[in-house]
Amino acid sequence: TFGSTVTTSTQIMQNSTTAPRFRLLVHGRDGSIPYLTPELLRLMFVPEETADNQLWEDGKLHREHVILGLAVKDTCITPDYQETLLSKKKRKGDGTVEENGKMKQARQHDAHVIQNLSTATDGKDASCDNEHHHQQQKLRSKKPTGYSFLNRDKSSRICGLLNGAQEKSTTSNYIDHYIRTPQHISTLIVPTFSFINNDNDTSANGSEEKKYTPKKVEAKHSLQKKKCSGSNIVIPKSTKNAVSIETPHGWQSIQPEQYCDAVSSMTLPTNSNSVPSICEGAVGLFDHVNLSSTQSDSLLSENSSQEKSAAKEQARKQALKKITMSLQKGNDWACRSHQKFLTGAQPIKFWLPVQILAAQLPSHVLFTTPKIRPNLQKQFEETEQTFLSNHSNVAIVGWDALVCGNNQRRENLRNLMDTLQLASSIPKKFLLLAVNDLQSILDAAREGISIIGSDMARLLSRDGIALCFDFACDGGISAQEIDLKKTRFARDFDPILSNCTCLACRPRITEKKPSFTRAYVHHLIQAKEMLAEILLYTHNLHQLLLLFRQLSKAAVLDDGMEDKVHLEKICRKIEESLASR
């Protein structure tokens, strides 16, 4: 995609001497890094060999610390078309005669041509090109009868169509060819990043048509938006064999076997000559724990131990029952998915999903399934329980659904990690999903989470906010969030952050001026131009990766020490700098 200067992720990993302790899992929307075009991806991750040393070092920083998260909910949803259409009966007096046999033969011929596009030769004449264009127009004009998740047949057919359209094609798997994920960026597959949608219909800088609405209607719409944005989000309930996830085409139910087929269809090659796509693994299916406000307060409120009323105790028991049922279903799905991955053509690293609310449960309940009851554990020693307790890769989910303070969220995270680590002697690697604020990122790093999934860079860019870290300032570390929507930046001709080497702040090659000033970004925000979000995203992503590099260096210095002195020092300075702003 990016020319001859592109290197594969395996070569990049071989060139790097030490892997970073902390890596950022970017929430990829529709299978791509938000806002970045192929040219921006090349400049940020694989610059040309003739580029300056600073740009090359920034590309190495970005490659080492970024993992692109691919969600099955939006990358593997495909339309279904009706294969045979019944011919409509003609009314009397139309002047046309039904030709059922000829129409059926024509439809079969169209399907045959579309199916064999991949085997077409290079020497196509003009008539073949016109026929191919005509068949594609017919395919686009069809309306889908429904939507389903990707499987091997669909993946092979889609890649076959793309191979037929492109004469020189070196890739033939779904991730590299259809989604066009850059080969130099590591990927990790998840069913969904979160069941809670933090997006609004339009961003602060997005193009939204202003329409006149009466005050009463506007007040009614604002009240409905507040109700919809509250904690009472309507999420379809999961069943014993499937969970519902929100896709661009509505809520779709997916089973563990369907999920494994979708993951395998994305990573496995469609022919024997190509190399499988390199992937960090896949997180198993997990469920949403739908707790009411009363149940959540009785379970997570800090003063619940002081005020123990009968109603609170009843609500707490109901909440623990919901968490147990959700955990057992998730464990059952994980065992089925892991078995499917083992029997597949290519082994895929599996990440066991665990709800963070499971920290409220006893340790002997964490590794149970609907088949394994806690009171029958001594009698039945099954392989499923051994797999759950000894699994080395654990993905902790549901962080953004916790309605409590930062200290209590961190305490729940620490208790859950300690319980999982004490279950076996095998060291575990932890992943945390849906962390969208800076304080949570620092808390996750303190507890030893190696992969932190976050959409923070995009959310800040959408709101016109620039994240600024200065690790070389006098007296410590400076951290702040600059809101470029404010009018005081209208005549500020300084870069977004001095000494920042991102694409938005670095000076031009011909002049010693910043590429884009604060005043220019402020103008773009006021004009609702998408370029403002693009520039802010490149800056915010670069700043987050600089933070991850500093946290990784501090973690290396803390090796062999009981207390994480250097890591705690960096986190404290950042918190103090943010509190003083």
Tell me what you see in this structure.
This protein is α/β, with parallel strands linked by helices and 581 residues long. Helix content is 42%, strand content 12%. It has 19 helices and 14 strands. Strands 5-2-1-12-11-10-9-8 form an eight-stranded parallel sheet. Strands 3-4 form a two-stranded antiparallel sheet. The chain has a two-stranded antiparallel sheet with strand order 6-7. The N terminus is likely disordered.
Task: State the gist of this model.
The protein is built from 19 helices and 14 strands. The protein is α/β, with parallel strands linked by helices.
Characterize the biggest β-sheet.
8 strands, parallel
Shape assignment: globular
Q: Which residues form runs of ≥5 with pLDDT under 50?
A: 1-17, 84-90, 94-99, 117-125, 200-213, 225-231
Q: Roughly what percent helix?
A: 40-55%
Strand numbers in spatial order across the main sheet:
5-2-1-12-11-10-9-8
* Helix-strand makeup class: alpha/beta
The whole-number mean of residue pLDDT values reads 78
Proportion of strand residues: 5-15%
Q: How far apart are the first and last residues' alpha carbons, in Å?
A: 43 Å
